[in-house]
Amino acid sequence: MGIVENSHRQDDEYFLGIHAERCKNVKEFLVKAQRWQDTWNIARPSFGIGMDGKTPYEKLISSNFLVHPHIFSFPVILMEDLLSQYGLFTKNLSLFLKSGTYVLTTCLSLLFD
Question: Which residues of 29-54 are buried (b: 16+ CB within 10 A; e: fewer)?
Fold first, then answer.
């Protein structure tokens, strides 16, 4: 769990905390988020446990895991958009709207203005 939590913390510190509220619309946010994801996974070396200065992409390739490298081509999406299409979370959406200044709250205000 520590690895995922560290990744989320770094997303918050280096991307969301800087860019989320500066985006003028959802499209701009998604473009910047995709750029961040590509930088994080493909260009930025990691010095976490077992990474040895490799990017996540390089680590995956060198590990010989049975995961295709195209997984790094997966586009950034807004989960609330995807889940709302299938009726998931819509009953509990009010819980998220009462949260802090996370992306969900910011993006929802952009979508409904």
Answer: bbebbeebbeebbeeeebeeeeeeeb
